[in-house]
Amino acid sequence: MQEIYNAIQSAAIKIDYAIKHEDTGYSDNQNSTGDIQLKLDIHSDNIIEEIFAPITSVKALASEEKAEPVTVHEEGRYLIGYDPLDGSSLADVNLSVGSIFGIYENDYSGKNLKAAAYVVYGPRVEMVTADEEGVKLFRLNADHTFAFIRDIKLEAKGKLNAPGGTQKNWLPHHKALVEHFFAEGYRLRYSGGMVPDLHQILLKGGGIFSYPGTSDKPAGKLRKVFEVFPFAYIYEKAGGEAIDGKTRLLDLSPEHIHDTTPCFFGSKEEIQKVRNAYANH
Ligand code: P6P
C-alpha cells in the first residue's frame, strides 16, 4: 500500500503546481456525468494515470473523468477508483479543492475497499490515509516531502454542520433534520468542496456532512466509487459512521461505475439522528 500512497504524494505535488500556475478555464469536453471538464480536471487525471499506470500491483484505474475503467496490469491486485480534482471549479475562486482515492480489491463495491486516501489543496497541501492502521494526517513540507502530523479520531459528537444540496429541493424531513442541528447550536461549515468540507469535520473532531436525495436528484449527486465509498471508509476508520439515510454506505455496490447515492458522514450521535429522521421515509 505504501507504493500507492507514494504515488498519491507524487501526483499531489504535480496537481498542486497545476492548480496554482496553470489555466483553470473550461475545456471543450464533457465527462460521462455530463459535467463540462475544466482543463485542470483533464490535466489532473492525466497526471494520476501517468504516475499510477507503471505500478504492477494496480490492475485497473477508474476515474470520475473517464467513462469506463482502464486496465493497466491484468495480474494486478488493486482497483483504484479516484476523483482527480473534486470541486475543481472552486479553484477559480481560490477555494480549497481535493483529490480522492479508493483502493479496492476484486470489484468496486464498498465492502471491497482496502484503503482510502485524499489530498486537500489549500493554504497547505495535506494528505489523509485510512487503512487497518487507522486514519493518519500528513503535510507537504518545503522540501517536497510529506511529514506525518497526527492520527485522526472523531468524537462521539461534534459542532459542525455541512448541509449540501439545493435547499429548495430538500425533502421536508431532511430540512427539519438540518434545522434541528442548527437549533442545537451547530455551526454552518460548507464551501461546496466535498474534500475540504469533510476534512474540516475530521480535523475539528466531529459533526455532520450531508448530501441527500432531493426532489430533483433522488439518488443524490456524489459518486459512490470515486467519492462516497472512500470517505465512508475514512469516517468509519476515524470512529464515525457513514449511511445513505438508512443503510451503511460501505454495504452498497454500484450498478454502474458512475452511480451516485445520498450520503451522510459524521460522528456517531449525529448519524443516529439521521437514522431517526429518515426511519419512516
Ligand atoms: P452543491 C463539487 O462539485 C461536488 O461534487 C462536491 O465536491 C461537493 O460536496 C458538491 O459537489 C457540492 O454540490 O450542489 O452543494 O453545490
Q: How would you explain this protein's 3D organization?
A:
By secondary structure, this protein is an alpha+beta fold. It has 2 domains: 2-151, Fructose-1,6-Bisphosphatase, Chain A, domain 1 (2-Layer Sandwich); 160-278, D-Maltodextrin-Binding Protein, domain 2. It is 29% helix and 29% strand. The protein is built from 6 helices and 15 strands. It has helices spanning 2-21, 39-52, 172-183, 194-203, 224-237, 268-278; strands spanning 26-30, 36-38, 58-63, 70-71, 78-86, 97-105, 113-121, 125-131, 134-140, 146-151, 160-163, 187-188, 207-211, 241-243, 263-266. Helix 3 links the parallel strand 11 and strand 12. The longest helix has 20 residues, at 2-21. The protein is globular and about 50 Å long. The relative contact order is 0.14. The mean pLDDT is 96. Bound molecules: 6-O-phosphono-alpha-D-fructofuranose (P6P). Residues 86-87, 164-166, 192-194, 211, 221 line the site of 6-O-phosphono-alpha-D-fructofuranose.
Break the fold down into its secondary structure elements and pairings.
Layout: H1 2-21, E1 26-30, E2 36-38, H2 39-52, E3 58-63, E4 70-71, E5 78-86, E6 97-105, E7 113-121, E8 125-131, E9 134-140, E10 146-151, E11 160-163, H3 172-183, E12 187-188, H4 194-203, E13 207-211, H5 224-237, E14 241-243, E15 263-266, H6 268-278
Helix pairs in contact: 1-2, 3-6
6-O-phosphono-alpha-D-fructofuranose is lined by residues 86-87, 164-166, 192-194, 211, 221.
